[in-house]
Amino acid sequence: MRFFSYFNKFLQSHPSSSKLLVLSSIRGFCLLLAVYSGGGLVVYADLPSDKEKPSLALEQEETRKKRVLVLGTGWAGISFLKDLDISSYDVQVVSPRNYFAFTPLLPSVTCGTVEARSIVEPVRNIVKKRSGEVKFWEAECLKVDAVNKKVICRSYVNENLPGKNEFSLEYDYLVVAVGAQVNTFNTPGVAENCYFLKEVEDAQSIRRAVIDCFEKAVLPELTEEERRINLHFVIVGGGPTGVEFAAELHDFVHEDLVKIYPSVKDLVAISLIQSGDHILNTYDERISSFAEQKFQRDGIEVLTGHRVLSVSDRLIDVKAKSTGQNVSIPHGMVVWSTGVGTRPVVKDFMEQIGQGNRKVLATDEWLRVKGCDDVYGLGDCTTVDQKKIMEDISAIFKAADKDNSGTLTIEEFKDVIEDVTIRYPQVELYLQNNHLSDITDLLKGADGNEREEVDIEEFKLALANVDKQTKSLPATAQVAAQQGAYLARCFNTREKCIAEPEGPRKFRSGGRHEFRPFRYRHLGQFAPLGGEQAAAELPGDWVSVGHSTQWLWYSIYASKQVSWRTRYLVVGDWTRRFVFGRDSSRI
């Protein structure tokens, strides 16, 4: 202390040294000395030694929030963000569009039944309502570096503005929900001469093109044949999107456009081309039949069993499967709606992780991307690879055979029934389709009588046909939304479920899975058919068609809007259309 007293007197006698910082390190300790005029203040700071630094870094790493990076703001991505406990994670979102679009109403946007801005909600409006910060960047993911847990992105916002457009982001958990792109099946001329209906911009382009066809058709000095060609609208694809667009276009033409283009009202034609034997072939056959009959009454030509060979700016070449004859059909515009394909960034990622031979990114039943740790896949860009029960049949038998007798009794089987039905959902589907009331009915003999016990071969035979019920999930908004909500729940309960697993038994390795696997619950599907009529397929094998179903469609689609703002706008657009008709302005 005598040293510090002497040092203090020295500083007081030298005003120019009123502020001095001395840093000395002795055996890993640091002495920080700060002295102000009028007196001295000594502060000791105990800095960590080199041996302590790694442990401190590890402690900081453990306390840091895990970084969750979400790619995409579609149904899956937004559903995940809305349900995720943001306060527990450092959440980052990357998407080339800064809004969420209610895609089931895109066909309505093509004809002005609903305005484009009525079905979109800014992403920042959605995430700002959450308790926590979500970082959002409007950019496209170019590459996923799974080894280094990093993604490379590029922004396409006005490139004339200063600053770099490319950047990289690191993650602890990656959620791939980028959706899919239109599948042209490499058909010549499709990309250059067809309109698609996948994004809001596509719907707006179709709306302008329809008006252009009418404006061109009424120009003077055109022959009647030229007018007919300009007003021939061809839709390729008899799925829900193609059928709904055909119905919307028919209503737009006959309820609104013929009133303002009366000279060409008899020249309009709409054709729907489907490669399968029926349109809406994923629906109940009663709905498919009703839709075909209604389109026939409305004058919409339905060409089933026809495959498109090529598309030019004036002709679409098709081949009839029944006769093998090639036909060239003149058109004014073609809308292509035949399914979806994998985006390039996902294809590149699949090559990295050993899925290059697959068409779609595969996940397990917990939505974890196969072959890559801490990466999850949601929505149209993925498929759930459901495990076959026959792959684990021996392990299931061994787990149930507690007395190691080599045979399985009904009571022993009942002990694993719940885990089996949770782990392998195809078992439940098999029971429903075969009208079996209980899974133990599978163990009955060929004569229908119950057996007291079965051996391994009889057990395999009883479950041999179960895996035939395994089906891929459809690429719909309903599936994507349920997957997003499921994954958010897994993230929210991660710590709890690690300590207390809630999933089914692991038959091979023992123990239990941390979470219950994803189970899709089908809530039904609609198909608006025009003329204020719709068809619905709802749970319980209930099929409804007609005007009342259209009003049910209105109520459900209004309730499913992502915000009260869009709900109000959509209902307002429907009301405006009833009162004033659709707007035919080319904007």
From TrEMBL:
Pfam families: EF-hand_1 (PF00036), NDH2_C (PF22366), Pyr_redox_2 (PF07992). It comes from the Eukaryota. Keywords: Calcium, FAD, Flavoprotein, Membrane, Metal-binding, Mitochondrion, Mitochondrion inner membrane, NAD, NADP, Oxidoreductase, Peroxisome, Transit peptide. Its cofactor is FAD. SMART domains: EFh. It is found in: Mitochondrion inner membrane; Peroxisome. Residues 388-423 form the EF-hand domain. Belongs to the NADH dehydrogenase family. This is External alternative NAD(P)H-ubiquinone oxidoreductase B1, mitochondrial.
